[in-house]
Write a structure and sequence with these properties.
Radius of gyration of chain A: 15 Å
Strand order of the largest sheet of chain B: 2-1-3-4-5
Oligomer: heterodimer
Structural class of chain A: alpha+beta
Largest interface: A-B, 29 and 24 residues
Number of domains of chain B: 1
Strand content of chain B: 15-25%
Shape of chain A: globular
Helix content of chain B: 40-55%
Largest sheet of chain B: 5 strands, parallel
CATH superfamily of chain B: Response regulator
Chain lengths: ~180, ~140
Protein backbone atom coordinates (compact mmCIF):
# COMPACT_ATOMS: atom_id res chain seq x y z
CA UNK A 1 0.00 0.00 0.00
CA UNK A 2 1.43 3.35 -0.94
CA UNK A 3 2.03 6.17 1.50
CA UNK A 4 -1.04 7.96 0.24
CA UNK A 5 -3.34 5.30 1.57
CA UNK A 6 -1.18 4.11 4.44
CA UNK A 7 -3.04 3.72 7.74
CA UNK A 8 -0.13 5.45 9.47
CA UNK A 9 -0.23 8.18 6.91
CA UNK A 10 1.53 11.48 7.07
CA UNK A 11 0.25 14.62 8.75
CA UNK A 12 -2.28 16.15 6.37
CA UNK A 13 -2.16 19.80 5.44
CA UNK A 14 -4.89 21.39 3.32
CA UNK A 15 -3.62 24.44 1.46
CA UNK A 16 -6.25 27.09 0.91
CA UNK A 17 -5.93 30.05 -1.40
CA UNK A 18 -2.91 32.15 -0.56
CA UNK A 19 -1.22 29.45 1.48
CA UNK A 20 2.05 27.68 0.86
CA UNK A 21 5.26 26.62 2.49
CA UNK A 22 8.33 24.43 2.70
CA UNK A 23 7.97 20.98 4.22
CA UNK A 24 11.11 19.38 5.63
CA UNK A 25 9.36 16.46 7.32
CA UNK A 26 6.92 13.93 5.87
CA UNK A 27 3.53 15.41 5.12
CA UNK A 28 0.60 14.98 2.80
CA UNK A 29 -0.38 18.28 1.26
CA UNK A 30 -3.83 18.59 -0.31
CA UNK A 31 -4.61 21.34 -2.81
CA UNK A 32 -7.84 21.88 -4.74
CA UNK A 33 -7.37 23.93 -7.87
CA UNK A 34 -9.54 25.54 -10.50
CA UNK A 35 -7.93 28.47 -12.25
CA UNK A 36 -5.48 28.71 -9.34
CA UNK A 37 -1.98 27.34 -9.74
CA UNK A 38 0.21 25.13 -7.60
CA UNK A 39 3.89 24.61 -8.31
CA UNK A 40 5.56 21.71 -6.54
CA UNK A 41 9.27 21.75 -5.70
CA UNK A 42 11.26 18.78 -4.47
CA UNK A 43 14.90 18.32 -3.60
CA UNK A 44 15.70 14.60 -3.65
CA UNK A 45 19.05 15.06 -1.93
CA UNK A 46 17.55 17.03 0.96
CA UNK A 47 14.19 15.26 1.16
CA UNK A 48 12.51 18.65 1.20
CA UNK A 49 9.48 19.81 -0.77
CA UNK A 50 7.47 22.97 -1.15
CA UNK A 51 4.31 24.16 -2.81
CA UNK A 52 1.72 26.94 -2.81
CA UNK A 53 -1.85 27.67 -3.84
CA UNK A 54 -1.95 30.97 -5.73
CA UNK A 55 -5.07 32.73 -6.97
CA UNK A 56 -3.70 35.41 -9.26
CA UNK A 57 -0.67 35.89 -11.50
CA UNK A 58 1.25 38.99 -10.51
CA UNK A 59 1.34 40.88 -7.25
CA UNK A 60 2.07 44.20 -8.94
CA UNK A 61 -1.02 43.89 -11.12
CA UNK A 62 -3.53 42.44 -8.69
CA UNK A 63 -2.45 43.40 -5.15
CA UNK A 64 -5.25 44.74 -2.98
CA UNK A 65 -4.72 48.20 -1.57
CA UNK A 66 -4.07 48.27 2.13
CA UNK A 67 -4.12 44.50 2.59
CA UNK A 68 -1.24 42.28 3.54
CA UNK A 69 -2.01 39.23 1.43
CA UNK A 70 1.23 37.45 2.18
CA UNK A 71 3.42 36.00 -0.55
CA UNK A 72 1.34 33.03 -1.67
CA UNK A 73 -1.76 34.71 -3.10
CA UNK A 74 0.14 35.68 -6.27
CA UNK A 75 2.06 33.28 -8.50
CA UNK A 76 5.11 35.50 -8.97
CA UNK A 77 5.63 36.34 -5.32
CA UNK A 78 4.86 32.76 -4.27
CA UNK A 79 7.61 31.40 -6.49
CA UNK A 80 10.07 34.05 -5.30
CA UNK A 81 9.27 33.35 -1.65
CA UNK A 82 9.60 29.59 -1.92
CA UNK A 83 12.82 29.78 -3.92
CA UNK A 84 14.25 32.08 -1.25
CA UNK A 85 13.31 29.62 1.48
CA UNK A 86 14.55 26.61 -0.49
CA UNK A 87 17.84 28.34 -1.21
CA UNK A 88 18.34 28.98 2.49
CA UNK A 89 17.93 25.22 3.02
CA UNK A 90 20.46 24.50 0.24
CA UNK A 91 17.87 22.76 -1.92
CA UNK A 92 18.50 24.51 -5.22
CA UNK A 93 21.06 22.14 -6.74
CA UNK A 94 18.60 19.40 -7.63
CA UNK A 95 15.15 20.95 -7.52
CA UNK A 96 12.45 19.09 -9.42
CA UNK A 97 9.60 21.37 -10.48
CA UNK A 98 6.06 20.59 -11.62
CA UNK A 99 3.16 22.90 -12.49
CA UNK A 100 -0.55 22.19 -11.98
CA UNK A 101 -3.89 23.95 -12.35
CA UNK A 102 -4.76 26.95 -14.47
CA UNK A 103 -8.12 25.67 -15.67
CA UNK A 104 -9.95 28.16 -17.80
CA UNK A 105 -13.44 29.36 -17.23
CA UNK A 106 -15.87 28.25 -19.88
CA UNK A 107 -16.62 31.90 -20.55
CA UNK A 108 -13.22 33.48 -20.22
CA UNK A 109 -11.67 32.01 -23.33
CA UNK A 110 -8.01 32.27 -24.08
CA UNK A 111 -7.52 35.30 -21.88
CA UNK A 112 -8.74 33.49 -18.78
CA UNK A 113 -6.98 33.96 -15.50
CA UNK A 114 -6.01 30.29 -15.43
CA UNK A 115 -3.79 30.61 -18.46
CA UNK A 116 -2.29 33.83 -17.12
CA UNK A 117 -1.50 32.09 -13.85
CA UNK A 118 0.29 29.28 -15.65
CA UNK A 119 2.14 31.62 -17.99
CA UNK A 120 3.35 33.60 -14.98
CA UNK A 121 4.49 30.42 -13.25
CA UNK A 122 6.49 29.24 -16.26
CA UNK A 123 8.05 32.70 -16.68
CA UNK A 124 9.06 32.93 -13.04
CA UNK A 125 10.55 29.46 -13.05
CA UNK A 126 12.42 30.06 -16.29
CA UNK A 127 13.89 33.30 -15.00
CA UNK A 128 15.18 31.34 -12.01
CA UNK A 129 16.79 28.84 -14.38
CA UNK A 130 14.47 26.02 -13.37
CA UNK A 131 13.24 23.33 -15.74
CA UNK A 132 9.63 22.17 -15.44
CA UNK A 133 9.72 18.39 -15.69
CA UNK A 134 5.97 17.82 -15.69
CA UNK A 135 2.83 19.88 -16.00
CA UNK A 136 -0.87 19.29 -15.95
CA UNK A 137 -2.59 22.54 -16.78
CA UNK A 138 -5.57 24.01 -18.59
CA UNK A 139 -8.87 22.40 -19.41
CA UNK A 140 -12.12 23.50 -17.83
CA UNK A 141 -12.24 21.24 -14.78
CA UNK A 142 -10.83 21.53 -11.33
CA UNK A 143 -8.02 19.36 -10.01
CA UNK A 144 -7.35 17.68 -6.70
CA UNK A 145 -3.67 17.31 -5.84
CA UNK A 146 -2.02 15.33 -3.10
CA UNK A 147 1.66 16.23 -2.83
CA UNK A 148 4.18 14.29 -0.76
CA UNK A 149 6.98 16.83 -0.20
CA UNK A 150 9.48 14.30 1.12
CA UNK A 151 9.34 12.22 -2.08
CA UNK A 152 8.10 14.73 -4.63
CA UNK A 153 5.26 12.45 -5.64
CA UNK A 154 2.12 14.18 -6.88
CA UNK A 155 -1.18 12.37 -7.10
CA UNK A 156 -3.77 14.20 -9.14
CA UNK A 157 -7.35 13.77 -10.16
CA UNK A 158 -9.49 15.84 -12.49
CA UNK A 159 -12.73 16.78 -10.75
CA UNK A 160 -15.21 15.71 -13.35
CA UNK A 161 -18.17 17.46 -11.75
CA UNK A 162 -16.43 20.76 -11.14
CA UNK A 163 -16.33 23.01 -14.18
CA UNK A 164 -14.56 26.28 -13.51
CA UNK A 165 -16.79 29.31 -13.75
CA UNK A 166 -14.13 31.95 -13.46
CA UNK A 167 -13.21 34.14 -10.55
CA UNK A 168 -15.66 34.28 -7.71
CA UNK A 169 -16.27 36.96 -5.20
CA UNK A 170 -17.69 34.58 -2.63
CA UNK A 171 -16.49 31.29 -1.20
CA UNK A 172 -15.32 28.95 -3.91
CA UNK A 173 -16.06 25.23 -4.08
CA UNK A 174 -13.41 23.15 -2.32
CA UNK A 175 -11.67 26.30 -1.12
CA UNK A 176 -10.25 27.14 -4.51
CA UNK A 177 -11.12 28.61 -7.84
CA UNK B 1 -6.13 -0.64 -21.76
CA UNK B 2 -5.10 0.21 -25.32
CA UNK B 3 -2.38 2.79 -25.95
CA UNK B 4 -0.84 4.36 -29.04
CA UNK B 5 2.85 5.26 -28.62
CA UNK B 6 4.15 7.89 -31.01
CA UNK B 7 7.84 8.75 -31.38
CA UNK B 8 10.32 8.90 -34.23
CA UNK B 9 13.07 7.45 -32.02
CA UNK B 10 12.97 3.64 -32.00
CA UNK B 11 14.79 3.65 -28.65
CA UNK B 12 12.00 5.72 -27.12
CA UNK B 13 9.32 3.41 -28.52
CA UNK B 14 11.17 0.38 -27.16
CA UNK B 15 11.37 2.01 -23.73
CA UNK B 16 7.67 2.87 -23.68
CA UNK B 17 6.65 -0.55 -24.99
CA UNK B 18 8.82 -2.21 -22.35
CA UNK B 19 7.36 -0.22 -19.46
CA UNK B 20 3.82 -0.91 -20.63
CA UNK B 21 4.32 -4.58 -21.45
CA UNK B 22 1.79 -6.61 -19.53
CA UNK B 23 -0.06 -3.45 -18.50
CA UNK B 24 -1.60 -2.41 -21.81
CA UNK B 25 -2.03 -3.35 -25.43
CA UNK B 26 0.19 -1.02 -27.40
CA UNK B 27 0.64 0.06 -30.98
CA UNK B 28 3.38 2.35 -32.23
CA UNK B 29 3.64 5.08 -34.83
CA UNK B 30 6.77 6.92 -36.00
CA UNK B 31 5.26 10.34 -36.74
CA UNK B 32 2.20 12.50 -36.30
CA UNK B 33 0.51 11.64 -39.58
CA UNK B 34 0.81 7.91 -38.92
CA UNK B 35 -0.56 8.44 -35.43
CA UNK B 36 -3.63 10.30 -36.66
CA UNK B 37 -4.25 7.59 -39.24
CA UNK B 38 -3.92 4.85 -36.62
CA UNK B 39 -6.25 6.74 -34.28
CA UNK B 40 -8.87 7.14 -37.02
CA UNK B 41 -8.56 3.50 -37.99
CA UNK B 42 -9.10 2.39 -34.40
CA UNK B 43 -12.20 4.57 -34.16
CA UNK B 44 -13.54 3.08 -37.40
CA UNK B 45 -12.95 -0.41 -36.07
CA UNK B 46 -14.80 0.34 -32.85
CA UNK B 47 -11.69 -0.24 -30.76
CA UNK B 48 -10.54 3.27 -29.82
CA UNK B 49 -7.34 3.98 -27.94
CA UNK B 50 -7.63 4.81 -24.26
CA UNK B 51 -4.56 7.01 -24.45
CA UNK B 52 -1.95 8.32 -26.84
CA UNK B 53 1.58 9.16 -25.72
CA UNK B 54 3.00 11.71 -28.14
CA UNK B 55 6.47 13.03 -28.79
CA UNK B 56 6.51 16.55 -30.22
CA UNK B 57 9.52 16.82 -32.52
CA UNK B 58 8.91 14.34 -35.31
CA UNK B 59 9.39 14.47 -39.08
CA UNK B 60 6.40 15.78 -40.97
CA UNK B 61 3.44 16.38 -38.68
CA UNK B 62 4.61 17.16 -35.14
CA UNK B 63 3.00 15.92 -31.97
CA UNK B 64 1.09 19.08 -31.19
CA UNK B 65 -0.59 19.12 -34.59
CA UNK B 66 -1.30 15.41 -34.24
CA UNK B 67 -2.96 16.09 -30.88
CA UNK B 68 -5.16 18.77 -32.46
CA UNK B 69 -6.22 16.39 -35.22
CA UNK B 70 -6.92 13.57 -32.80
CA UNK B 71 -9.17 15.89 -30.78
CA UNK B 72 -10.90 16.94 -34.02
CA UNK B 73 -11.48 13.30 -34.92
CA UNK B 74 -12.98 12.72 -31.49
CA UNK B 75 -15.27 15.72 -31.81
CA UNK B 76 -16.43 14.44 -35.18
CA UNK B 77 -17.47 11.17 -33.57
CA UNK B 78 -19.06 12.73 -30.49
CA UNK B 79 -16.26 11.41 -28.29
CA UNK B 80 -14.59 14.68 -27.30
CA UNK B 81 -11.92 14.17 -24.69
CA UNK B 82 -12.55 10.43 -24.40
CA UNK B 83 -8.93 9.57 -25.09
CA UNK B 84 -6.16 10.76 -22.76
CA UNK B 85 -3.32 12.56 -24.56
CA UNK B 86 0.03 12.67 -22.79
CA UNK B 87 2.86 14.64 -24.37
CA UNK B 88 6.38 13.30 -23.79
CA UNK B 89 9.08 15.56 -25.16
CA UNK B 90 12.58 16.86 -24.57
CA UNK B 91 11.15 20.33 -25.21
CA UNK B 92 10.72 21.78 -21.73
CA UNK B 93 9.82 25.39 -22.49
CA UNK B 94 6.62 27.11 -21.50
CA UNK B 95 5.57 27.68 -25.10
CA UNK B 96 5.47 23.97 -25.84
CA UNK B 97 3.87 22.91 -22.56
CA UNK B 98 1.18 25.59 -22.91
CA UNK B 99 0.54 25.05 -26.62
CA UNK B 100 0.13 21.33 -26.07
CA UNK B 101 -2.31 21.70 -23.21
CA UNK B 102 -4.18 24.97 -23.85
CA UNK B 103 -4.28 24.87 -27.65
CA UNK B 104 -4.03 21.25 -28.70
CA UNK B 105 -6.00 19.63 -25.90
CA UNK B 106 -3.34 17.45 -24.31
CA UNK B 107 -4.11 16.18 -20.82
CA UNK B 108 -0.59 16.33 -19.46
CA UNK B 109 3.06 16.90 -20.31
CA UNK B 110 6.24 15.13 -19.27
CA UNK B 111 9.75 16.15 -20.24
CA UNK B 112 12.34 13.61 -21.27
CA UNK B 113 14.18 11.86 -19.83
CA UNK B 114 11.55 10.02 -17.83
CA UNK B 115 11.82 6.80 -15.89
CA UNK B 116 9.18 4.12 -15.69
CA UNK B 117 7.86 5.43 -12.36
CA UNK B 118 7.34 8.93 -13.82
CA UNK B 119 5.50 7.51 -16.79
CA UNK B 120 3.26 5.17 -14.82
CA UNK B 121 2.47 7.92 -12.29
CA UNK B 122 1.48 10.31 -15.07
CA UNK B 123 -0.78 7.70 -16.62
CA UNK B 124 -2.33 6.89 -13.25
CA UNK B 125 -3.04 10.57 -12.66
CA UNK B 126 -4.97 10.46 -15.93
CA UNK B 127 -6.97 7.52 -14.63
CA UNK B 128 -5.05 4.79 -16.47
CA UNK B 129 -5.69 2.17 -15.41
CA UNK B 130 -7.19 3.79 -12.31
CA UNK B 131 -6.62 7.04 -10.48
CA UNK B 132 -4.62 6.77 -7.24
CA UNK B 133 -7.02 9.16 -5.51
CA UNK B 134 -10.03 6.95 -6.17
CA UNK B 135 -10.98 5.64 -2.78
CA UNK B 136 -8.52 7.89 -0.96
CA UNK B 137 -9.85 10.20 1.67
Amino acid sequence: MNALLSPEGFPVRHLGIGEGGVFDSPARVHVLLGSCVAVTFHSPSRGVGATFHALLPARAEFARQGQDDGPFRYVDSAIAELLHRLASLRCMADLEVKVFGGANSLVQGEFGIGMKNVRTAFAGLASAGLRVTASNVGGTRGRKLVFLPSTGDVYMKILSETPVHGMRSGPAPFGGV
Amino acid sequence: MKLLLVDDEPVALRFLSGVLAGRARTETAPDGASAVAAFARALDQGEPFDAVILDIMMPGMDGIEAARRIRALERGRGREGACRLLMLSCLDGAEHQMAAQYDAGADGYLTKPVDSADLLAALANLGLPENPLDGAE
